[in-house]
Amino acid sequence: MLLSVIVPVYNEAATIERILERVTGAPFEKEVLVVDDGSTDGTRDVLRDRDGRDGVRVLWSDRNRGKGAALRRAIPETRGDVVVFQDADLEYDPRDYAPLLEPILRHGADAVYGSRFLGPHRVFLFWHYAANRFLTLLTNVLFDTNLTDMETGAKAFRGEVLRGLRLTADRFDIEPEVTARLFQEGRRVFEVPITYSGRGYAEGKKIGWRDGVAAVARLLRCRLTRP
C-alpha cells in the first residue's frame, strides 16, 4: 500500500520543518506532496531544501490562493492507494495515521475522519469549538448523517474516491465541500478518535468567522446541486 500525504502550507516557517520530520518518519511507504501557497515568511527557503528528499515533493503557487486550492492542486498528482490531508502546523499528529487507515484497510471505508471531540484534545477556544459544532450539526441535518467533527483537518480517503470527487472550493470551505460530495455519492465515511493540540490566533491560527460563513454557504450550495 502506498500512502500519499498532502501538506498545504502558507506561512508556517516556525513549524514546517518539524511537521515534515514527523510525516516522513511515519512508518508507511509514502509520498509527501507539499503545496506552498505563496508563503512570504521564509517557509519557501525550508521547502527548497526539503524538495526531493525523504519522498517529499514540493508544488509551488505564485500567490496565496487558499487551502482548498492547494489541496485541489495536489490531489491529481497523488499516486497513493490512500490519501491523507495533513495541516502544516502541529495541531494534528502523524502518529494518528494508523487509526485513520484502519477502517479503510479492514472495514471497507471510503473515507475516515479523525474526530477531535472523541479523543484527547487541548481545552481551548470556546467559540471555535461552538462554530465547529454548529457546522457539523448543519452537515448532519442537510445530509442525514451523524458526524461529530466535519471540520477536522485529519481526513483519509481511498485514493480513487478522492481523485474522483468534483471539488471547486479554494479556501477553508473545501472541508464542507469534500464532506458533502462524499455523502452525496453514498460513500462509506467512518470516524476515529485522534489527539488534537489546538493553537490560538497569536500562535498563527488562520481560520476566522468569515470562513464559518463561507462554510455554511458551501454546505447549502452543495445540498442544492449534484456532484
- Largest beta sheet: what is the strand line-up? 3-2-1-4-6-5-7
Provide the domain count: 1
Molecular shape: globular
The total count of helices amounts to 8
| CATH fold type | Spore Coat Polysaccharide Biosynthesis Protein SpsA, Chain A
Radius of gyration computed on alpha carbons: 16 Å
Structural class by sheet pairing and helices: alpha/beta
Low-confidence region ranges: none
- CATH top level is Alpha Beta
The end-to-end span amounts to 28 Å
Largest sheet: 7 strands, mixed
Overall residue-averaged pLDDT value: 90
Order of helices and strands: EHEHEHEHEHEHHEH
Helix content: 25-40%
Query: What is the β-strand count?
Result: 7
Q: What would you say this structure looks like, in words?
A:
The chain is α/β, with parallel strands linked by helices and 227 residues long. The chain has a single domain, classed as Spore Coat Polysaccharide Biosynthesis Protein SpsA, Chain A (Alpha-Beta Complex). The longest helix has 18 residues. Strands 3-2-1-4-6-5-7 form a 7-stranded mixed beta sheet, with helices on both faces. It contains 8 helices and 7 strands. Strand 2, helix 2 and strand 3 form a beta-alpha-beta unit.
